Amino acid sequence: MGACLGVCSLLSCVSCLCGSAPCLLCGCCPSAKNSTVSRLLFTFFLFLGTLVSIIMIIPGVEKELHKLPGFCEGSGSVLGVQTHVDCGSFLGHKAVYRMGFAMAAFFFLFATIMVCVRSSKDPRAAVQNGFWFFKFLVLVGITVGAFYIPDGAFTSVWFYFGVVGSFLFILVQLVLLIDFAHSWSQLWLRNAGESNAKGWYAALCIVTFIFYATSIAAIVLLYVYYTKPEGCTEGKVLISINLILCLIVSAVSILPKIQDAQPHSGLLQASLITLYTIYVTWSALANVPTQTCNPTLLVRNSTSSATATQPLTTWWDAPSIVGLIIFILCTLFISVRSSDHPQVNKLMLTEESTAGAGSEAAAVESGLHRAYDNEQDGVSYNYTFFHLCLLLAALYIMMTLTNWYRPDESLQVLRSPWTAVWVKICSSWAGLLLYLWTLVAPLVLPDRDFS
After folding, report:
1. Using CA atoms, how far apart are residues 392 and 406, in angstroms rounded to an integer?
2. Pick from 401, 356, 360: which is nearest to 376 by CA?
3. CA distances (Å), 334 to each of 62, 77, 383, 390, in order?
4. SS (H, E, C) 171-235
5. Low-confidence residues in the chain, pLDDT < 50
6. CA 132 to centroid of chain Cα atoms
7. 391 with 108: CB under 8 angstroms?
8. What separation in angstroms does the CA of 247 have from each of 90, 220, 317?
9. From its phi and psi, is residue 86 left (phi > 0), alpha (psi between -120 and 50) or beta?
């Protein structure tokens, strides 16, 4: 009898994996929106691929990757250059690139399928919100196939895909930071207004001061460690330019006309954007390929050429670890965000949906812990844009895990190219201009509603 009950329970779990998101909530979970559950599950797939990538670059695991069937086939060329290279060269680098390709292809597939889905009444919405077991099988199948891709020009071409995708995802991260800081400031100001307590204003000032103090300390450290009294001109110029730009956006955010047009804009948002910009600057300087100007530069020897006197260096440095943390927080925020900032909603192609209120009430009254359909009258987020964001995130984490490094001409050492430096710096400039536009847009376009 117990065996029969166990089989029935297993069959019910399988049906849930093949069905929609509501089945996947356990009894201890609160009722949730179907759209939120689906986004979290897709994000889980991204995190799962990231975890596999991290495991593959662990030195002990990396050396064993040549045992994967087909992984070393076609290794007669690297970056399009025909040469005799041992299969053990840069196995972790190859594995992360192929895992990044698999995740990007998976999310691109769903971005294409979900074009122009308007509500959950569209049959494709059932694919978006269900069939999770089959989606997992698709991801596994694409991943297996990716490891059979011969080297040739794949790594060289995919590197530039990763560069472009990472540039765009850095901008997405900055938009999410703007949204987060805006919601944070608005919440505390609302609490201060409702309770007439000055403590909220004090807390706002303290947090802003901490952000600016951290940014100033970081700038001083960048000048100390990434510049020299003589030489390292690029580092001095880049740090100085970003410092000046951060001062400009901070000053603009508190101008009287800006405050009149956007009462909730202020130094909290500017301080958080400043801190993030300084982080991106630090990450860029950590990729400067000159050892004298970059004390954190990693020289990664190939797996096959490492000797006892020339040990393998780790993939991880401090900017990569911080970047991984920011990546996790931003992708989770993409999954659960529900912004009240109209400009951010337009940029992120999301909207505040009131659909599904009746389903929510019914779920609460029934006492069942399940996901309810909140998209019968209209989707609460753009399915295609969401998958494109995860695609960019997959490319960003691929570049972060490999430190944006590429093999040199001898194909024996992975080095940091200047491309990585300029892409990160340009993304910081583009992000600051984007934030500046959110401040001045109501003044430049007075006929449009930015309330």
Report:
1. 20
2. 356
3. 32, 39, 12, 9
4. HHHHHHHHHHHHHHHHHHHHHHHHHCCCHHHHHHHHHHHHHHHHHHHHHHHHHHHHCCCCCCHHH
5. 1-15, 21-22, 24-29, 74-86, 301-313, 339-340, 347, 352-366, 368
6. 22
7. yes
8. 42, 15, 28
9. beta
List the structure tokens of 235: 């580092």
* Close Cβ partners of 389 (under 8 Å, ≥ 6 residues apart): 169, 172, 334
C-alpha–C-alpha distance, residues 251 and 231, integer Å: 31
| H/E segment holding residue 41 | helix 34-56
Q: What is the pLDDT of residues 326-348, one digit of tens each?
A: 888 888 877 776 544 555 555 45
**pTM value?**
0.79
> 361 CB contacts (<8 Å, ≥6 apart)?
none
Which tokens belong to 174?
């900055």
Return d(Cα 425, Cα 403) in angstroms, integer: 15
3-state secondary structure of 257: helix
Which of 266, 269, 264 has the alpha carbon at shortest distance from 193?
Answer: 264
pLDDT confidence of residue 307: 38
Residue 32 bridge partners (DSSP): 371
